[in-house]
Specification:
Layout lengths: L1 H9 L26 E4 L12 H11 L5 E3 L6 H10 L2 H14 L7 E6 L1 H12 L5 E7 L17 H14 L3 H6 L12 H7 L3 H4 L7 H7 L4 E7 L15 E2 L7 E2 L5 H5 L2 H6 L3 E6 L8 H13 L2
This protein binds 2-acetamido-2-deoxy-beta-D-glucopyranose (4 copies).
């Protein structure tokens, strides 16, 4: 199980900056106004790979004249950090991160945050559960805010291993041992068995106020200055793609997407209030999961980090 997951999820891995990238001039703003930035990596990745979040950290530093960027390492070292993406329950990870952020004096006046893939919904959980220090703008890159239903392609795996994982998620995702042992099961969202999902999902159903409405979650989420959701139009990993914009299948089937403003989570998390105040922003870009170019990052995301 463990080894299989490694191999499988490696294909989910990492940001790869597409080459292209123009060398953009630094954006203009007063250094002092740039808030620190917190990054949370996706599964199969770590805080610090040079080809992945390491390069993003560097890019943000360059673009902001050296603002403080903290790329979260979950656990004592990079190996544990890598494993956390699969095997450490998100609730534990979020608790851990809340403590890290609270202990970091450089963040005490607030920070912006960027979540990569599942790091997007994990940082949203941080915003909802731990309002101090205050998160200002949350950018979610390919996050799965209403979960996933379906196994991504797994080209590096044998057909039988792929089948095995698929069977596990399809038939046992809501078993407690799977919920405890496999991070991806905690945001597995089966639209054919919505009530199972609501009762058994040990992470996503909670942060999405599915079963029990936690007013504090909605309140804290509305403290954000902005929630920016980025969808990858040609994503072959996140099923359905629309989850990146907080949408999902209408209950009872797995083809039709329910528009966000008709879904329960829209009201239950008071996303309607965020939208009403112009704080909910949807961006999209061509390309597969997390496949963004340096130029796109500089053009579309850096300005969000420089806003007052
Ligand atoms: C970075 O510094 C340069 C030169 O001091 C300045 O022109 C530019 O506005 C600064 N950019 C930011 C984002 O602070
Ligand atoms: C902005 O940052 C640059 C590079 O770190 C530094 O040289 C410059 O003095 C800073 N400007 C202000 C206004 O803080
Ligand atoms: C990506 O998806 C968009 C929207 O569905 C489509 O218009 C575009 O042709 C696709 N691009 C590629 C390279 O497949
Ligand atoms: C829901 O959003 C759509 C756009 O996605 C809009 O056309 C429609 O008016 C909205 N409906 C409500 C009830 O707000």
């Amino acid at each position: 199980m463990r080894l299989l997951s490694y191999t499988l999820f490696l294909v989910y891995c990492c940001m790869h900056f597409a080459q292209a990238a123009a060398a953009a001039a630094p954006a203009s703003a007063d250094n002092k106004s740039v808030l620190p930035v917190v990054l949370w990596h996706g599964m199969g990745d770590t805080c610090c790979f040079k080809f992945s979040l390491g390069s993003i950290k560097k890019l943000i530093e360059e673009q902001t004249n050296g603002t403080y960027v903290r790329s979260l390492k979950i656990g004592a070292n990079v190996v544990l950090d890598y494993e956390s993406g699969f095997f450490i329950h998100p609730n534990k990870q979020v608790d851990f991160v809340c403590k890290l952020l609270a202990d970091d004096v450089r963040l005490s006046n607030g920070y912006n945050a960027i979540g990569f893939s599942q790091g997007g919904q994990f940082l949203r959980a941080v915003a909802q559960r731990c309002p101090n220090p205050p998160m200002r703008t949350l950018i979610s890159l390919g996050g799965q805010h209403q979960g996933v239903y379906g196994l991504p392609k797994c080209p590096t795996l044998s057909v039988s291993s792929c089948e095995y994982i698929s069977q596990l998620l399809n038939h046992a995702a809501y078993e407690s041992w799977v919920q405890n042992d496999l991070v991806q099961a905690t945001y597995w969202h089966d639209p054919l068995h919505e009530s199972n999902y609501k009762l058994k999902s040990s992470f996503l159903a909670d942060i999405n106020n599915e079963l029990y409405i936690n007013e504090g979650y909605a309140e804290n989420l509305n403290k954000l200055k902005k929630l920016v959701l980025v969808k990858f139009l040609n994503d072959t990993i996140v099923q359905p793609k629309e989850s990146q914009w907080f949408e999902f299948y209408a209950p009872g089937q797995d083809t039709q997407i329910l528009p966000l403003n008709q879904s329960k989570v829209y009201k239950n998390l008071r996303l309607d209030q965020l939208a009403k105040h112009g704080k909910l922003q949807f961006l999209s870009t061509e390309g597969d999961h997390l496949a963004i170019s340096k130029a796109w990052f500089i053009e579309n995301l850096v300005p969000l980090l420089l806003e007052e």
